[in-house]
Amino acid sequence: MDRIGIRIRKPDDSREYYPTVTVTSNSIINYSSGWEYKVEYQRNEKDPIHAGLVQFWKRTLAKKVHYNAPRIRFKSEPIVINIESLPIALQRTNGRFRLNGKSESASTIANALARVTVSAIREKSPVKLMSSLMKVLSLSENVKYCLENRVPFHYYVNFEKVDVRLNVQQISEKECAIEISDGVWASIPNKELDKFCTFFLHDKKQGKFKHMGIKRLYTYLLGKEPTDSDLELMRQFLRQNRQQDIVEDRAIQLLHELVEESPNNLHLVMEGKEPKSLYIKGQGYDWLLNANEYKSDIQMVSTFVCQPKPKTDENNMPIPLSECVWQWKGPICIDNMAKGSSLGDQFATRALALINDTHTIQIVNTIKRYLVADENTNRMDFDEMLRVQHK
User: Fold this and answer.
1) What is the H or E stretch that residue 4 is in?
2) Alpha-carbon 190 to chain mean position
3) CB within 10 Å: which end of the chain, N or C, has fewer?
4) Are 198 and 204 in contact (CB under 8 A)?
5) Mind giving me the DSSP string for 311-370?
6) Which residues are within 8 A (CB) of 33 and not within 5 positions of it... i.e. 6 or more apart?
7) Strand 96-99 vs strand 102-104: parallel, antiparallel, or unpaired?
8) Tell me: the pLDDT tens digits for 86-121?
9) In degrees, to the nearest 5, what angle opens at C-alpha 82 toward C-alphas 79 and 86?
10) How far is CA 172 from CA 138, 156, 190, 324, in A?
């Protein structure tokens, strides 16, 4: 029986990989000089690690040979691959796939195999791995995304794109309901919602939902054309559900809750409705986060650490660091793994990381070169931190 190993790169600066996941089968063709394949995360995606694994499995399932992926040799009868201890039956007939006897698209199968692969890093029990597989197959990735994050939709006002998020509820095993106007809910089959996301989530210009506007969406979901008053009510409703407003409001609320839960570690300074600065007492050092004047998708927040400016006495001998002038050193380059995070989310995630700075320093290589003093040297209260100057 042939085997391959899948090594997934960790989403940090360590350049390390998670423990190898072993896949065995009599139908795997290995094109690598070794037996292990390294899978890189895709930081431009919403779930970088999952996206990298989906790409790997799509290449493995494809007829075309890819140099950085193995290939499955399909036969007329089902073949079996084992992800660790979990056997999975696969079949491809006339371009159509079946997984464990059930017809599925190549995309669904790749997503399912990707989820099981991640689970198999730490979980080896076939029962628990099968449970992971069944959970994935019960709902598509797109439908699960909508249930967790609302349904993405966009329309145009005076040639300007407006992104919105619509409330959604699962109403049966095969259907969901979307709120498209104030109190107006419409049912949609899960398979149709999955296709809807092809354009409005993944921006793939294909299928019947591409470039669907407000009027056509109303007509499609409710089976009748809207009146002028229906459309105006819908427009007003959509304005209140702008995606960026929802995301940022939720992120700011999370940030305030975080500060309330850790008043001894966090001190927040607001500028209007947006966070301006966040002072953090970590386990070893004091930190400052500032809203970045030149915001980018992956670095909307600048990070600084409080460190001494080394000095020498009249005899050119170094003076104790505790007697030196302390200043904010930085900005330290700490990028987000994925694009699209709001300002509030970036403040919150960095705050959580820096409260536990003794661990974060070990996995974020860009921090270490800014550290001069040992941990817990000359720690300050928030009033003192507010008076510290930048270098």
Assistant:
1) strand 2-8
2) 23
3) N
4) yes
5) -B-TTSPBPPGGGSEEEEEEEE----SSTT--HHHHHHHHHHHHHTHHHHHHH-HHHHTT
6) none
7) antiparallel
8) 999 999 988 889 999 988 888 889 999 999 999 999
9) 120
10) 12, 32, 9, 66
258 within 8 A of 348, measured Cβ to Cβ: yes
Given a contact cutoff of 8 angstroms between Cβ atoms, the answer to whether 26 and 321 are in contact is no
Cα–Cα distance for residue pair 252/258, rounded to 1 Å: 10
One-letter-per-residue 3-state SS of 96-156:
EEEECCEEECHHHHHHHHHHHHHHCCCCCCHHHHHHHHHHHHHCCHHHHHHHHHCEEEEEE
Paired tokens of 350: 């960095």
Q: Are 305 and 286 in contact (CB under 8 A)?
A: yes
* H/E element, 229: helix 228-239
pLDDT category of residue 336 using cuts at 50, 70 and 90: low
C-beta of residue 109 within 8 angstroms of C-beta of residue 90 = yes
**What torsion do the CA atoms of 32, 34, 36, 41 make, to the nearest 10 degrees?**
-50
Kindly state the helix (H) or strand (E) to which residue 387 belongs, with its residue range: helix 382-387
Question: Alpha helices of 2-47 — where are they, by DSSP H?
Answer: none
The terminus-to-terminus CA distance of the chain in angstroms comes to 62
Instruction: Give which of 155, 146, 157, 163 is closest to 212, Cα–Cα.
Output: 155
Which pLDDT tens digit goes with each residue over 162-179?
899 999 999 988 899 999
Predicted confidence at residue 364, as pLDDT, reads: 85
- CA nearest 347: which of 264, 284, 280? 280
pTM above threshold 0.70: no
Contact 248, 291 (CB under 8 A): no
d(CA 301, CA 294): 9
